[in-house]
């Protein structure tokens, strides 16, 4: 039995430590994952277009330049992934997370959603496209551990 | 010059008359469009799984059954479309609209977003994947009219 | 709102009248479906290779010739379909039905499974790839009716 | 002449030692294969959803949660494979094995089926999509050895 | 049960009346086929490049110009087809017929080969990619009739 | 023999009457073509973004808005086409014509280039991806006539 | 500038030393190629099905079993390749070489044909799909050397 | 967080040192890029067909042979890339650069264009397909650095 390397993209909410909890949990178990993620520094993600390519007067184009540079990273990484974990928190619109989920779904990637039960109704279409819906990062670690090792702990 | 039929999917917000305004505007100009859309009766969209396949005790599975039946329609229609218009309003999470946009983007569909300027920053990733961002249904009609007739009015 | 024609492939068990019940139910409601299906005459399906291309001494090759001719029909029709309904009965192995479901899943078709509850555990992987699991042909009609008309009856 | 690594997915029956016989046979010949397979511990495969994400009252949803988590592994591995070996035994429905075969066929993977001659008629559609049908694991080793080394022993 | 139109490409040998026998046979049975084929006038097929775009001094480029113009037709038609029938006769190299078969195979088209038994060994790779191997045009008609009507005559 | 409708996209230079000459030539011969083309009114093509969605202060964004709206038409039409004719004249950069040719090549469309011999060296990569290179619109008509009718005039 | 590894499939004639001349020529220049090829031992290629899976009474099925096992190797290798070199000699039908060329063409692989000038007319369709036509193995080495190093010797 | 290797293709103008400035800039920052590019020695790029495969009398075929050999390199490299940078200078037609951009766009690659502002209007369609438009090689380095490290400097 071979253990091929799995690539996991961690999409969505950037204000809590859920990514660290998943990565640390998986690394504690010595699992063969490569972790990819969007730019998680909020300010850099907002400013990258204006800082690198020049400031803009119109907010729309300022955002546009930044969003497209971020897309170079985001789309490349989603396409390189086997599994996409999408985290929704209780703040902000997080439309980019749902957009990533749709993008991953159309590419046939395995999707795991991660959110509190009170978001169930609002996320029913996204959960409907996922192969698992978890409530804690530890459950995501358990799913990833199980699919890669082939056994429950 | 031939005028092939265009298929347009109208995704997103279901509480205002933006779909009617687009369809009526295009039909007034006698343009060759087929219009597709999700189920726009909110209650039916929520209840379809439970009503057809049986009630569920757990809210998660009630939503899940409905969301997947809706997905039969949604995905089939997005795949049949040339253009996907995605409307975001000021209420609700509308994650399904962003999910549709991501799904359409990965399939290489032409996307037009439709929303007020105050949503610009929150929608920058979705707008970044779109070929046009309109603020009114009439602008969407003008875009569709232009791309199909090949001239400005 | 346009009503595009939907193409539905009816795969699986051929010893009960489930296909007729679905087709009749949908036609009673005047729904825009094209119905495709495998060869449902069991003897023809078994004998086609030997009858058309010559008898075989080895059972394996007799079956092989027939199975491949049937595949011309089956694969062409699954690829032309928007929705694939897969019916499992209580008799026979029906591996071809599960094969069709896997084939349809990899092509991204919307799958509806149709079977009694006592097959739930044995069919969990197939149901897991489906967008709906029905127990009666009438439920399938209701799902198809809903996704095409966009409203519950 | 280069010897690229081949990836082989071993799908199907989990109650006999056919996987070990293939892997041991190939490794004895020092052949460059990576071996992938589904979760082969029957209980873990059944329970994974309920154990990781929480118990369910309805058997359908208990199976559903588990089947979808298993699909993360199964589909990822089939997509990574060059060759898919599908084993059918004389017990159980094994619809998931036939589903895997259909899934692999639609992706254009090379399929080798492995079963006793008495299953020939029931498996004719699956065998019809395969590039070889073997009766023993040793024949599978011989096929894999031949295609990778380019010569008969 | 719907009877969708099938598109059949008739590739290969152009010196006997096998195409007419297939088309006449199918039309006598009133079957819903569209028939596509390469340019079957040998001289036109050889000369088209030089006649339309200007004569060439080098035979290689004369052939090249013609072959590529013919490819506009050939590839467009193979891609539009559901079934590709490839006929090999006893004369000439007919490498373009084998090329068409390979092209069709990679696109996942259903292939039917048509040739005398004495070509079996030389054509084993092409027959291996086909779903049926016939010896007479009438057998091809019977196969096409069976897959479209779903019953043996 | 069936005569399926062919769809031809006419890309490139918009200042001479080459499109009319091709269309008129083909229609005189009663050939089954659908003709698609970009917006050929230069001013509309430049202004569409600003006129429909609002004027821009920065020339880059003014052009950007227009170019993306034009892309809705251009990409949709190239994807619907069987053959893409790309015309290069002696004026302007015409990078959009070369871009269309590259886009069509990656999609596997049949490409016919149309230009004077003095552009041969500069266009060698584009001609290298084409299935024919013509110098006059009449030659394009002759090619299209030949591939659709299957015979030289 | 990076020098990625290139994978080259050497298809076709197996009775002269053209493969060795290409491989030796490229290795003398220390070029980063992986070389793939079909089974080049004629007897093994013919007998593999019968030897591994059991003798057949009918020549058709004996060939069929062998051809399909060989296809496991052939298709896997062509799909892994960047460039496919196809060699035609003056003996035998070599339909499998033309089939490989068609298969590679439909997958968008870069094709180099290798044959004497007296086969030009018979191979015009295959050459028309190739990016280069060479007459000697040394020319193939020069092409491969040039495309990988980016300079003429 | 993993840092997967990125592959970047540097297409277009070959008469200034923009490639070196990008590569040196990225290597100074120790970024994990593989750099691919067309043949940048102008004479070799023009002569390769004639030198390797024999001189031609007609300029068209001389260019044609060379262009197709260059295409082996160009297309293989664009397909292996994650990001395609396309540089337009103020001289020459550079249709091959625009062709590469179109080819990359249809494959869904992330495109960065690099040119002076005075080319903005002529390049609006190419820029419209790009995810970023830079004016200096240093800006390209900054974009690549940002998308790979996930933070602004």
Helical fraction of chain A: 40-55%
The residue-averaged pLDDT of chain A reads 96
Count of DSSP-assigned helices of chain A: 6
Shape of chain A: globular
Kindly report how far apart the N and C termini of chain A lie.
18 Å
From the helix content, strand content and strand pairing of chain A, which structural class follows?
alpha/beta
Order of helices and strands of chain A: EHEHHEHEHEH
How many individual β-strands of chain A?
5
* Most extensive interface between two protein chains, with residue counts: E-G, 40 and 41 residues
Q: For the largest beta sheet of chain A, what order do the strands appear in spatially?
A: 2-1-3-4-5
Oligomer: homooctamer
* Uncertain regions spanning at least 5 consecutive residues of chain A: none
Biggest pleated-sheet summary of chain A: 5 strands, parallel
The portion of residues forming beta strands of chain A comes to 15-25%
As a whole number of angstroms, the C-alpha radius of gyration of chain A is 16 Å
Walk me through the structure.
Eight copies of one chain form a homooctamer. The first copy, chain A, has 153 residues and is an alpha/beta fold. Helices cover 50% and strands 16% of the residues of chain A. Chain A is built from six helices and five strands. In chain A, strands 2-1-3-4-5 form a five-stranded parallel sheet, with helices on both faces. In chain A, helix 5 links the parallel strand 4 and strand 5. Chain A starts with 5 loop residues before the first strand and ends with a helix. The interface between B and F is medium-sized, with 22 and 28 residues.
